[in-house]
């Protein structure tokens, strides 16, 4: 079969494709510390059950399953989301600034292509990642090749076990050409894969740079504010003109309903609605109706604050504890400060093999992680750091996390210099 360039793009295995494949087809007995599924938290699933039972009993299923909603999303839900985001950010946000999409992956596919590729006068523009590593799922989304521009971070070691990435503000001065090349700036907060939460001051810095260059700042809050709010360190939800922000129900525990939200200027939101009707006709209804119930009742706040956040915080502490207590002192490793999300990002300095080469060996040893290499879009290929890091999810039950970490430790020790 002959495929267009667009079709060809999907013929090669993508980073996100490999990840989703291993997630859906795990090797028997393997400890699955790779994937991005949220945990199944009993108290959370009870809330979904309650909402669904109420919908069945009230006879509203006919509307939920049997009709197309507007491509903009259900009006009342847009108002509800606008009201939550207004309250949380302390700025006035109207429903004209809210779009409802089939998950945030779908939203970012559209947004990244709105702001990269060919512009007027045949000028090509790219997406600027102001700090690496960055989410694997952006990497293959752009229609044009070579669409990323990225800045390496400043690496600050905190103690002999941990470190944190910071935005290298100097890069914005020394590489001033970014203003001509970038069509938008994009950052996930917390960042998948590192669990880094860029500070409020760093976010304000990016807002100012984007404003100066007259381009939007895209912020992906899939794990962050206000829901599911898996942020362990102190920081704030900020919204200012010039920002376009993504949100999702997935990490609250509802990845299957494929519901996401975008907050932005009304012109971009209108464009999203139009694109949504061309590509999807409209967004799926079940997630929208669950969200309506959850947001209207205010129950989301209790779930996020009292159940989801403490659950992941405890898991993060547990996973770090297992590593520190069990990995050999010969290993020269650092864990990125766990500011939020569901992952630990581990940097091992003295290995005989690259982490990509270790991946099949780890798989053989019965543990799945995600090698770091794919989280560096647009980076200098010779930067060895890319091959010294990996992502480890702490979503699974403690027993599986512990066993997986022990298996990783044994393999790393074998291949340490
Ligand atoms: C940072 C980030 N953004 C967006 C997504 C996409 O999530 P969804 O499309 O399920 O909302 C993910 C999924 O793992 C993610 O980690």
UniProtKB/TrEMBL annotation:
Cofactor: pyridoxal 5'-phosphate
Record key words, sorted: Aminotransferase, Pyridoxal phosphate, Transferase
Stretches assigned to the Aminotransferase class I/classII large domain: 59-407
Superkingdom, natural source: Bacteria
Enzyme Commission number(s): 2.6.1.66
One Gene Ontology MF term: valine-pyruvate transaminase activity
Name listed for the protein in its UniProt record: Valine--pyruvate transaminase
Lineage: Bacteria, Pseudomonadati, Spirochaetota, Spirochaetia, Leptospirales
């Amino acid at each position: 079969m002959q495929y267009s360039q667009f079709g060809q793009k999907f013929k090669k295995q993508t980073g996100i494709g490999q990840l989703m494949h291993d997630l859906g087809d795990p090797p028997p007995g393997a400890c699955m510390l790779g994937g991005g599924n949220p945990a199944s938290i009993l108290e959370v699933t009870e809330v979904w059950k309650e909402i669904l039972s109420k919908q069945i009993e009230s006879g509203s299923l006919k509307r939920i399953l049997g009709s197309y909603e507007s491509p903009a999303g259900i009006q009342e839900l847009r108002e509800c989301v606008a009201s939550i985001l207004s309250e949380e950010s302390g700025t006035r946000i109207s429903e004209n600034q809210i779009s409802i999409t089939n998950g945030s992956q779908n939203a970012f596919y559209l947004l990244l292509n709105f702001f990269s590729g060919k512009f007027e006068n045949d000028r090509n523009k790219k997406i600027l990642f102001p700090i690496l590593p960055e989410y694997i799922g952006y990497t293959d989304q752009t229609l044009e090749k070579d669409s990323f521009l990225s800045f390496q971070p400043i690496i600050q070691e905190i103690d002999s076990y941990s470190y944190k990435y910071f935005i290298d503000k100097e890069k914005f001065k020394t590489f001033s050409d970014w203003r001509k090349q970038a069509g938008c700036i994009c950052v996930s907060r917390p960042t998948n894969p590192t669990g880094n939460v860029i500070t409020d001051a760093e976010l304000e810095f990016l807002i100012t740079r984007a404003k100066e260059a007259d381009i939007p700042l895209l912020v992906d809050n899939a794990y962050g504010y206000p829901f599911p709010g898996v942020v362990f360190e102190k920081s704030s939800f900020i919204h200012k003109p010039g920002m376009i922000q993504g949100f999702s129900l997935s990490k609250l525990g509802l990845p299957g309903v494929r519901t996401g939200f975008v907050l932005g200027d009304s012109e971009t939101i209108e464009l999203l609605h139009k694109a949504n009707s061309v590509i999807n006709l409209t967004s799926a209804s079940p997630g929208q109706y669950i969200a309506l119930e959850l947001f209207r009742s205010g129950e989301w706040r209790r779930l996020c604050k009292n159940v989801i956040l403490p659950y992941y915080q405890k898991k993060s502490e547990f996973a770090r504890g297992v590593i520190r207590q069990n990995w050999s002192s010969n290993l020269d490793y650092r864990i990125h400060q766990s500011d939020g999300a569901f992952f630990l990002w581990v940097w091992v300095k003295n290995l005989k093999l690259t982490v990509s080469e270790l991946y099949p060996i780890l798989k053989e040893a019965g543990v799945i992680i995600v090698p770091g290499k794919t989280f560096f879009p647009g980076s200098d290929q010779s930067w060895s750091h890319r091959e010294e890091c990996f992502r480890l999810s702490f979503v699974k039950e403690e027993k599986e996390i512990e066993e997986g970490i022990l298996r990783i430790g044994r393999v790393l020790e074998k291949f340490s210099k």
